[in-house]
Amino acid sequence: MSVSADRTSSPPELLNRQELAAWRGMLRTYTLLQRELESRLEARDGLQNSTYEVLMHLSDAPDGQMRLSDLAELAILSRSGLTRLIDRLEREGYIRKRVAIVDRRKVGLNAHVFAQVKLNAHGRANLDEFSETIRGFPEVLDAYVLMGTMDFMLRIVAKDIDAYERFFFDQLSKLPGVQEINSTVALSEIKATTELPLE
């Protein structure tokens, strides 16, 4: 058996002194920029660059979901290293939970209502009690304390307007301390995202 060299391929070209100096300069600049970025992120958010990058990719992903292998490739991490990092981010509260976002209309929740609630003086003295009661209503998806003339903003879903009306009269308006409720029905959804504007 004879082995012959492939005479068609040429040896790799080496960099000349000037090109090598430029290459080293670029690598040094890149390293310094990485260190500076790392120290700024650490000072501002207490995060390493790789951690921030993972959060950014997750936030940019549709509905915050991404295959682990794709995320590992983007963040230049091993799958096991990425799994440990995501577990740590969950423990530390950066990632609150991993969920599947269900289309409310597909499961028969066609009414989408925003309710602004104003409490009387007695109700304001018992904000914790009101908040705890609101947390127990499965119809209330989100609840926010407001500054201004109203005290709370609630995002509520129901089967239809009749179901919302029953919830309104039988439960929400009967809560102690409620003075006024202004309900606004959403006709359509223009934008709904879980993506955060991370830079």
Low-confidence stretches: none
Global morphology: elongated
CATH architecture of the largest domain: 2-Layer Sandwich
Listing every helix as H and every strand as E from the N terminus to the C terminus, the arrangement reads: HHHHEHHEEHE
Number of helices: 7
The amount of helix comes to 40-55%
Measured between the Cα atoms of the first and last residue, the distance is 60 Å
Per CATH, the class of the largest domain reads Alpha Beta
Gyration radius from CA atoms, angstroms: 28 Å
Can you describe this structure?
By secondary structure, the chain is of the alpha+beta class. It folds into 2 domains: 17-91, Orthogonal Bundle (Arc Repressor Mutant, subunit A), CATH 1.10.10; 104-185, Alpha-Beta Plaits. It has helices spanning 17-45, 49-60, 68-75, 79-91, 121-125, 127-135, 161-170, and strands at 111-119, 140-145, 152-158, 178-185. It is elongated. The termini are far apart. The mean pLDDT is 86.
